[in-house]
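Sample entry (550 residues):
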Amino acid sequence: MPFQDYSTSPSANTTIGEETFIGPNMPRNNVRQALQQLAADGKDLSNALDTIVTTGLNTDPLLRANLASVGGSALTGFIQSGTGSVARTVENKLRETVSVKDFRNLSEPDDTGAFVRASAYLTPIGGRLHVPAGNYNISGPIVSDSSGQTGVTEPRMTLLGDGARSTIINVAAGDFDALTFIGSNGAAADAVGSIEGINLSKDGHLGKTLVIKQYSHIAVRDIKINGGYYGLYGSDLQESHFENVLCSFALKGALIEPGAFTAPNAHTFLNCKMGPNFHSGLEVVNCGLLNIIGGSYESNQCTVPAIASFGIRVNWTSAFQIESAVGLNVWGAYIEQNGHIGARDIATGDIWIQNDAGPMAVSILGTTFNRLGHYCINNIRVENSGTYQNSLTINGNGHRSFPFAGGYTPDAGRPAVLIANPQYVLVNEGVNIYADAIERPYFKDYNNLTHGAMAQAHFLFDGTGATGVKAALEKFNIASITKLSAGTYNVVFGRAMPTSAYLPVFSLESDLRHAVTARTTGGFNFTVRNGSGTLTDDGAIGAVIFGAGY
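Predicted structure, serialized as C-alpha cells:
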C-alpha cells in the first residue's frame, strides 16, 4: 500500500503497540521512528516526503529540524528505478561512496586534515576515496598504511579523482612525502590497489611526490605528477601497471626498486611520459621483467656531471636473486633529448642497461631516438659483466640527429648502440635506420650467432717468438692465446661453449700439421708440427671454430 494510504486514511493507520504512528493524528515527534518502522516492514516510502508536505507536517519545526540534522538522510526514502529494486534510506544510498569533502572542515587553513581523516577512516575498512573535481591544498604527508593487515583477503583503500585536468592537489614545499600508499607488511599474499585521475603537484625538490610500497598488484592510471625529489617512487611492488602517467619537473622522474621482502616480477608502463625532469627519467632496479609500451621519455637533462642523466635506466645488480632470466621490452616508444647540459659526453644512454645479475634478454622494437642539443653518448647502452648468456634484439628503430642551431653534431665516438662486453651478448639486429652513418653500430665483434652451423669464434696470430700471451691479429670470442712452448698453444674462449663438441678448422701458413688436445668448453690446446713430426712455430696461425651453437 503506498505511503499516503497509511498516512491519510484513518482506517489505514499503522499502530505499534497501542500508539498510532501513521495517520491524521500521528504524533509528530514520532516521524523518525515511524519511517524507520515502515522501511523495516518493506513499505513503499518513495513518496513519503510528498505526503508529509501535503498533510502539513512540513510546517512542523521539529520535523524540519530532524530532516536538517546529521541523521536527516535516514528519514528520507530512496528506491532505484527498475524491477526488483528495494527501498532504502538516502543515508544508506549516499554512504556507498566516500568523498574527501565529507571530511572537509572549512575552518582549517587547507585540506590536509580532510585527507588525513578520510584516509584514517577508509584504510582499515577498505574502499574508494573519491576526490571530486576542484583544487586542494595540502601541507603535510598523507599516508594510507595497511601494513598491519596481514590477511590475504583484507581490503585496501583506493583513490579516484575526476581526471588529471580536473582534480588538482597542490602540495606545499617541504622535506616530506606527499601521498603514500602502503599495501601490506609482507605476509599478505594479495595487496591490490589503484590510484586514478588526479594531478599531484609538489612545490620544490624535497621529499617524494607519490610513494607506493608493498603491493602485490597496483594500478596507477591517468595521473599527472609534478615536482619532488622523485616524482614517483615504488618499493616492493610485485606486479605493477602504470598507464597514462605523466611525470615532470621532478629532480628524478621515477624510481621503482625492491624493498625488504619481494623480488618484483613485472612492471609495465603503458603510454607514459617521463620528462622533462632535472636529472633523469625512469629508473627500475632488479625486476624480473620491465615492459615499456609507447609513451615518451624525453628532455631529462642535467647540469651536474657527477649525476647520471638518462631517459630509461634498468639496473640488475649481483645482489638480485633471479629465478631464470631478466628482461626488458621497449616497444614503440619516443625517446629524445636526454643527457647533460654542458659536459655532454658522459657515459650514459637514452636506454641504459646495466646487468651483472644473470642471463638477460632485451628487445627494443619500433622505437624512435632523436638527438638534439642535449644527448646521451649512446641511444642504447648495454653495460654487462660476468659470463652470463645475454641477448639483444633491435628491429624497426629509427636513430636521427638534428644539427640545427644549438643542435647536435654526429660523432663516431658516440655510436647509436654500444655493448660493453659483446662476447657475452647475442645480437639479433633487424632493419633499423641510422640517419648518421658515422654513428651506425658495427656488430662485427658481437656474438650474433645462435646456430651451431655458424662460426662461434675465430682467431689469427703470429705463433713465432717467445712464449707467453700472444697478441691476436684478428679475433672473435677469444679471451686469450698463449704460447706454452715451441709449437704448443692454449686458446681461451671469451664466452664458453655450451659443450666441448665444437670443431676448430685451422689455416696454417706453411706445410704444417695441427692437432687439438685438452678440449673443454672454455677452450683448448693445440700443437703444430712439421712434416717430420717436430713441434714448430708458424707465423700465421688461424682457426675458425664451428658447432656447439647456443
